[in-house]
Amino acid sequence: MTDILDQAQKLEELQRKVALENRFQAVQRPSRTHCQDCDEPIPEKRRRMINGCTRCVDCQAVYEQKKRGFRQ
User: Fold this and answer.
1) How many CB atoms lie under 10 A from the CB of residue 69?
2) Which domain holds residue 59?
3) pLDDT exceeding 70 applies to what percent of the chain?
4) Are residues 50 and 72 in the same domain?
5) Are residues 17 and 50 in the same domain?
6) Contact between residue 26 and residue 48 where contact means Cβ atoms under 8 Å apart
7) Mean pLDDT of the chain
8) Residue 19 shares a structural domain with residue 48
9) pLDDT of residue 46
């Protein structure tokens, strides 16, 4: 008979594996060439350094401030 702790450990391992797979898939997306908010070109250097970036530096800063609850 399987112990409940063994079942919990297997579930945790499965959840961790799925979370890691999802994280790696998100990182491997290609970067956008233009900002999704202002449609200005995203510099090539930024696109190379930040895999999957979707915003220019200015729009990303505004997005992060709003996410934290600040208003500009």
Assistant:
1) 6
2) 31-72
3) 85
4) yes
5) no
6) no
7) 87
8) no
9) 94
Nearby residues of 59 by Cβ (< 8 Å), 6 or more positions away: 35, 36, 37, 38
For residues 40 and 61, membership in a common domain is answered with yes
Q: Does one domain contain both 13 and 42?
A: no
Reported as a single tens digit per residue, the pLDDT across 22-44 is: 776 655 678 899 999 999 999 99
Q: Is the dihedral of CA 33, 36, 39, 45 positive or negative?
A: negative
Instruction: Give the burial class of 20: count Cβ atoms within 10 A of its Cβ; 0-12 exposed, 13-18 middle, 19 or more buried.
Output: exposed
The arithmetic mean of pLDDT across residues 9-32, rounded, is 81
Contacts of 33 by beta carbon, 8 Å cutoff, 6+ apart: 41, 42, 47
Residue type, 68: R
39 shares its domain with 71: yes
25 and 47, same domain (yes or no): no
Mean pLDDT, residues 10-17 taken together = 92
